[in-house]
Amino acid sequence: MGDATRRSIFGLLTAVVLLSGAAAACSSGGAGTSGTTVTLPTSPSALPAVTLAQFKGLLAAEASRGRPVLLNVWNSVCGPCVREAPAIESLAGSYAGKVQFVGLDVNDVAPLAKAFIAKNRWSFPSVSDPHADVRNGMGYAAQPVTILFDAHGKQVYFQAGDITISKIRAALEKLSTGA
Question: Is the distance from CB of 164 to CB of 88 less than 8 angstroms?
Fold first, then answer.
């Protein structure tokens, strides 16, 4: 399967995820009234476990705020994840207040994941996908994966494997200038 086909499939899946998440968020009656709504934690190391439905709702809620979202799917012992972690935090610092960074920690052990976050001084929240149900439900086979959504929830960048910092920065700049 070529990159263009993979991106098209992912774009379709993303639209379904955002729409179904919005429907779940609307039908839940608000945060805390059902098991399908979750908000981003305020602490980068809180790492609450989420279900696929909760994660869909979280993405939909973030899209409804009208701010771009950069999603990084990671694991504390994944080689490419370890290599790219400092660059992800550097970007998060550069775009603080302009782009919401969100981590999805997959199939990890909580103490290792929290140590990874601390070591890399991540300033943004992550949620935990302890059995890879969210990752698999979104159509990913492995991590890392980095996706950038514009302020309307539309996917504008996708990178499987090691990130290309210059390409992500260019996509982020394009969003911030409205080009």
Answer: no
Largest distance between two CA atoms of the chain: 42
- What's the token pair of residue 101? 């960074």
Cβ-based burial of 4 (10 A; exposed 0-12, middle 13-18, buried ≥19): exposed
Gap between the Cα atoms of 160 and 163, Å rounded:
7
| Orientation angle between helical segments 110-119 and 79-94, nearest 10 degrees | 50
Q: Is 74:85 a contact under the CB 8 Å cutoff?
A: yes
Q: Give the model confidence (pLDDT) of 119-154 as tens digits.
A: 999 999 999 999 999 999 999 999 999 999 998 889
Q: How many CB atoms lie within 10 A of CB 45?
A: 15
H or E stretch at 69: strand 69-74
Cis before 44 (ω within 30) = no
Measure the CA–CA gap between 50 and 127, rounded to whole angstroms: 7
Its pTM surpasses 0.85: no
Closest Cα to residue 142, out of 79, 50, 68?
Answer: 79
Locate 79 and state its tokens. Answer: 């080689």
Beta bridge partners of 31: none
- Tokens representing residue 77 in the block: 């012992």
Q: How far from 25 is each of 52, 60, 61, 129, CA to CA, in Å?
A: 13, 8, 7, 19
User: What are the residues whose beta carbons fall under 8 Å from the beta carbon of 20, sequence distance 6 or more?
Assistant: 56
